[in-house]
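Each lists sequence, tokenised fold; shown next:
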Amino acid sequence: MSLKEILQKNHFTFQKRFGQNFLTDANLLASIVEKAGIGGEDVVLEVGCGGGTLTAAISDRAKRVIGFEIDRNLEPVLNETLKGRDNVEIYFRDVMKIPTGELETLAGGAYAVVANLPYYITTPVLMKFLEEGERVSSVTVTVQEEVADRLCARPGTPEYGAVTVAVNAAGSAEKVMRIGRNCFYPVPNVDSAVVKISVDREKYTPAVRQAVRSVVRAAFQSRRKTLVNNLMQAFRLSRAQAEEGVRDAGLDVLCRGETLGVEEYVRLAGILSERGYL
């Protein structure tokens, strides 16, 4: 029985507020799991199981799948689509309301995150795992293509923003495949893409990441303003203090936040932190 038939059989109604668009093509789903690099010893946390098609594809390759679904109305659907899959556990809970430590206890060790995410929750979910996760090895998300472009953007481009820097501070992002809108049911208004973020916890210390986070938030407070002006406003610095910090980081005092790469943010954050400005 197809997913559409199972949904109809269980009188399921799509909830617009949850951004529900399900993938049904088995080959496409298998490709997503392959691009995520999931293997036989991996534990995977899936955020938003939907109709269970991606969950099933993950379970074909992973040692264990721990899925989270916010819509309890999908329970009878998931009972059918995931029947007999002993390596799958489903929790009908909002993953954003579960402490990250509790999620990592459930995983029991290193784990990967895989998710098909609606626009409104993409950044919160990413930041939860990239900033708080201690054992996460990778995060692979299917998102709107414009969001994917933002996650993988280069400094100085219109797509480059605070979330891009946050991703680069935690690891590296790569757009691994595109997915046309017609591959989803129901069909959304935009195309999507799959982004894999390989997490590197050795890249920077938690203290450095925290300092960078504060500076990035300030730098992108107003994209029209120079970095110096944003730093002055955010940290209540005099112009002389802000300009000196920017110069000492090897940056132009007239630069804007969207032109800085993550290493430049690390350097600037270190200087501002040493001077007690953060």
About this structure: The first helix runs from residue 3 to 9.
